[in-house]
Amino acid sequence: MTVKTRGFITILTGLYSFQDCIHFLAAIRKFHQEPIIILIDRVPKILYPFLKVFKNVILKPAPADKNTVLASRKAKLALYEASEFDKTIYLDSDICLLSDINDVFEYLEEYDFLLTEDVQPSITKATNLLRGKQQDMLPNVLPILQSVGLPLREDSVQYNGGFMAFRKTETTKVFFDDFKRYFEIVKNNQDKLLLKDQGAFASAIASVKPKMKILPPTYNYLSKWKDTYNITGEIKVLHCTYPYRPQYAKNITRSLYTRIFDKFAQVFLPNQVTNPWRKK
């Protein structure tokens, strides 16, 4: 009998997110012992041991690009190829687990993909994907996205790519191939579109139609948008950069090692709150 492998994967491109990534690893190890792949770029190798303190961490080079935003997008496009597992959970590196998420791995017995919707799920209202003043662009969102060749419709959904889980199947391989193809359209139309991947991601979902399950926002809870949620269950996955994290979440990753590292970070690492990438 073949044992199915499972593991986590994240992306670390640059020093601004390094402290987040340390606490990401600490949170995963609080609840899980599966291997964790980090697609890494623009981090001096002298800092790699800080990541390798955590057991079973695999560092792989992320697709490089002089544009740090584009490098991060390329890394997300490469998730399928970079994963070594039958079942993979991808999480942004500024995520903190508040409990185990073994149920996500279990769902992958049945589904190809598990996702959460964006706080603004309707693609017709996704002004965040377009250049220009958002209030002026609202009537034109779908026509602009369609005009560049994205196969989106009024009922298409915008998903938050900070969390996704997938299993290695032919369907998910085709999905990531289409994801790359549609992102090329986004990249080639930066006069109209911002360099974001949600439109390409939604297009690949619309095109491939994988067997997928939409999880509630408790699996990708963005504290920045807490007033928009109607939460009925326990928050399992908190999506929030470490400096803004509530104390109960900071306690999840608190240890002698992280306390010492945080003092090091204050002196030697740039403040992730001021990360210009977050403004892109």
UniProtKB/TrEMBL annotation:
<dbReference type="InterPro" id="IPR005069">
    <property type="entry name" value="Nucl-diP-sugar_transferase"/>
</dbReference>
<feature type="domain" description="Nucleotide-diphospho-sugar transferase">
    <location>
        <begin position="89"/>
        <end position="242"/>
    </location>
</feature>
<dbReference type="Pfam" id="PF03407">
    <property type="entry name" value="Nucleotid_trans"/>
</dbReference>
<dbReference type="InterPro" id="IPR029044">
    <property type="entry name" value="Nucleotide-diphossugar_trans"/>
</dbReference>
<protein>
    <recommendedName>
        <fullName>Nucleotide-diphospho-sugar transferase domain-containing protein</fullName>
    </recommendedName>
</protein>
